């Protein structure tokens, strides 16, 4: 019984709490121990381990910078951050009209929130930025002009390759509501949209005034965009994780059954010792020893299986 319990403890305690966390495109991960833990007390991804995310070069981190491994085998928060690049800064921009000098379309992509575009009051005004290449667009950031009497806006952001007033391109996202004063509006494309042009369209009759329009992409160039198939999801639980947890549960059930069998053999051995005089006494130590060998073999196989399950 003691041997079986020891084997069970060794197998369970030797496993990591969490799987290797995913790395976002254009990013990297470093790991940090909890404040009161020493390296000798922690396995590679034990509960309490902290993953720290950073991005390469000119890519910006969007999402959680830190994630922690928990006892349930998951990293929290579960959302994976993005490493994205601003692909609109300083590029050519056009708009449906210009209200006056100083309200040109370029001010939406000059990197300065204090300079803003401004169209005339017209029906369905728009603003468009010409990207250098056909790129996968994931997130749009907008800053609207601050006014003392703000009003609700209804805008649609489109991405695509058509230049026919840009209205035929795919919809990335829609914003309805009051623009937050002094803050950016981030719009996430439900799926990555590829295109050469990013445009914003105001519904109704009014003047469109944008201080900043930024399109973020995982690919900073056409060459990189060819290697980007899809953007990692903010909330992910892979089917492989679920299957592997089921495999681990199977190992757990097998070990529990083995412990029960060992206990049953021990009880039967004790009973037979009391009922037999001398003839069968010598047989049970041999069976007990044989059982111990099977326990050790099972431990070895189980550990190998767990190594396959949790690399």
What does the secondary structure layout of this molecule look like, with pairings?
Elements (H helix, E strand, L loop, with lengths): L1 H12 L13 E6 L17 E6 L4 E3 L3 E4 L5 E2 L5 E5 L6 E3 L26 E2 L2 E19 L8 E8 L9 E8 L7 E18 L2 E2 L3 E8 L4 H4 L13 H37 L7 H27 L2
Antiparallel strand pairs: 1-2, 2-4, 3-6, 4-5, 6-14, 7-9, 8-13, 9-12, 9-14, 10-11, 10-12
Helix pairs in contact: 1-4, 3-4
Organism: Ixodes scapularis (Black-legged tick)
Keywords: Calcium, Disulfide bond, Lectin, Membrane, Metal-binding, Signal, Sushi, Transmembrane, Transmembrane helix
InterPro entries: BG_Antigen-Binding_Lectin, FTP1, Galactose-bd-like_sf, Sushi/SCR/CCP_sf, Sushi_SCR_CCP_dom
Fold and architecture overview:
The protein is α+β, with helices and mostly antiparallel strands and 311 residues long. Among the domains are: 27-83, Complement Module, domain 1, CATH 2.10.70; 93-217, Galactose-binding domain-like (Jelly Rolls). 26% of the residues lie in helices and 30% in strands. Strands 3, 6, 7, 9, 10, 11, 12 and 14 form an 8-stranded antiparallel beta sheet that branches. α3 (239-275) packs antiparallel against α4 (283-309). It starts with a helix and ends with a helix. Residues 4-15, 222-252 and 274-311 have low confidence and may be disordered.
């Amino acid at each position: 019984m003691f041997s079986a319990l020891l084997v069970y403890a060794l197998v369970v305690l030797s496993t990591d709490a969490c799987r290797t966390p995913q790395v976002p495109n254009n990013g990297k991960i470093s790991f940090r121990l909890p404040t009161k833990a020493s390296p000798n007390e922690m396995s590679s991804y034990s509960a309490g381990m902290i993953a720290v995310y950073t991005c390469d070069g000119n890519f910006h981190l969007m999402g959680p910078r830190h994630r922690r491994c928990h006892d349930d085998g998951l990293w929290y928060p579960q959302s994976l951050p993005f490493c994205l690049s601003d692909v609109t800064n300083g590029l050519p921009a056009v708009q449906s009209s210009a209200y006056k000098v100083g309200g040109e379309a370029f001010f939406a992509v000059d990197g300065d929130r204090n300079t803003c575009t401004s169209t005339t009051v017209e029906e369905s005004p728009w603003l468009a930025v010409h990207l250098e290449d056909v790129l996968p667009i994931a997130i749009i950031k907008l800053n609207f002009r601050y006014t003392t009497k703000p009003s609700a806006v209804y805008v649609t952001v489109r991405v695509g390759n058509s230049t026919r007033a840009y209205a035929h391109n795919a919809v990335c996202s829609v914003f309805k509501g009051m623009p937050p004063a002094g803050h950016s509006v981030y719009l996430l494309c439900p799926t990555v949209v590829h295109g050469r042009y990013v445009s914003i369209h105001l519904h109704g009759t009014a003047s469109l005034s944008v201080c900043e329009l930024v399109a973020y992409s995982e690919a900073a160039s056409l060459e990189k965009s060819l290697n980007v198939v899809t953007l990692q999801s903010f909330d992910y639980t892979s089917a492989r994780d679920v299957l592997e947890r089921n495999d681990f549960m199977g190992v757990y059930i097998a070990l529990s059954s083995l412990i029960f069998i060992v206990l049953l053999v021990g009880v039967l051995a004790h009973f037979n010792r009391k009922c037999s005089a001398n003839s069968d006494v010598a047989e049970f130590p041999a069976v007990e020893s044989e059982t111990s060998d099977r326990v050790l073999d099972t431990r070895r196989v189980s550990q190998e299986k767990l190594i396959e399950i949790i690399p």
